[in-house]
Write a structure and sequence with these properties.
The complex is a heterodimer of chains A (112) and B (115). Helix content of chain A is 0%, strand content 50%. Chain A contains no helices and eleven strands. In chain A, the strands form two sheets. In chain A, strands 2, 4, 5, 6, 9, 10 and 11 form a seven-stranded mixed sheet that branches. Chain A has a four-stranded antiparallel sheet with strand order 1-3-8-7, with no helix packed on it. Chain A is globular. Chain B is mainly beta. Chain B is 0% helix and 54% strand. Chain B contains no helices and twelve strands. In chain B, strand 8 and strand 9 form a beta hairpin. The chains are: A mainly beta (112), B mainly beta (115). At the A-B interface, strand 4, strand 5, strand 9 and strand 10 of A face strand 5 and strand 11 of B.
């Protein structure tokens, strides 16, 4: 099992550009989520999904889109990057037994 | 609304000292999970422990121990005989079993163990 994988590991964008952060898991987990980590603020939930075809907003959804067409994949789209979106992004998944979430290695995004 | 507070932003101790990381939470749910995660300098998030709201037994795992007190809404983490490898940012988190089951994190405590 690869667990939760994220690509790319690092990314630099210019303001206004769009891009997709990829997240995949091979554990057949129904629940997947995206967090951003900013200094002194812990991790904040952006979007989450309780299964294929079902997504919902978290605490800080503005500027981000998600979709969940398969159980395995949960991409995060930045529509028009802004410097305020400079952060480390983590994807996580968990089984339907409502236990701990397993995190990917993170993507460090810088928007200039 | 759910909230997790880690009042200690940074802690620095000398190796072999014991150190306790505090975590206080707020929730209206009767059933929930509490977690501790470790984030070493390499950046990944490592799961340490899960505690169900119905289980107030303290837990010990090697040099790590956790004290869950529902009466004070606290879930503190103690490292005994700290080691340099324990240096990391530690996050406490809360997850409801109802509704969206979102994971709410505290702000984290940066622990530095000095040799």
């Amino acid at each position: 099992n690869a667990g939760v994988t994220q690509t790319p590991k690092f990314q630099v964008l210019k303001t206004g550009q769009s891009m997709t952060l990829q997240c995949a898991q091979d554990m057949n987990h129904e629940y997947m989520s995206w967090y951003r980590q900013d200094p002194g603020m812990g991790l904040r939930l952006i979007h989450y999904s309780v299964g294929a075809g079902i997504t919902d907003q978290g605490e800080v959804p503005n500027g981000y889109n998600v979709s969940r067409s398969t159980t395995e994949d949960f991409p995060l789209r930045l529509l028009s990057a802004a410097p305020s979106q400079t952060s480390v992004y983590f994807c996580a998944s968990s089984p339907p037994t409502r236990s701990e979430q397993y995190f990917g290695p993170g993507t460090r995004l810088t928007v200039t | 609304a759910q909230k997790v507070t880690q009042a200690q932003t940074e802690i620095s101790v000398v190796e072999k000292e014991d150190v306790t990381l505090d975590c206080v939470y707020e929730t209206r749910d009767t059933t929930y999970y509490l977690f501790w995660y470790k984030q070493p300098p390499s950046g990944e998030l490592v799961f340490l422990i899960r505690r169900n709201s119905f289980d107030e037994q303290n837990e010990i795992s090697g040099r790590y121990s956790w004290n869950f007190q529902k009466s004070t809404s606290s879930f503190n983490f103690t490292i005994t005989a700290s080691q340099v490898v324990d240096s990391a940012v530690y996050f406490c988190a809360l997850r409801s079993v109802q509704g969206a089951q979102k994971l709410v994190f505290g702000q984290g405590t940066r622990l530095t163990i000095n040799p």
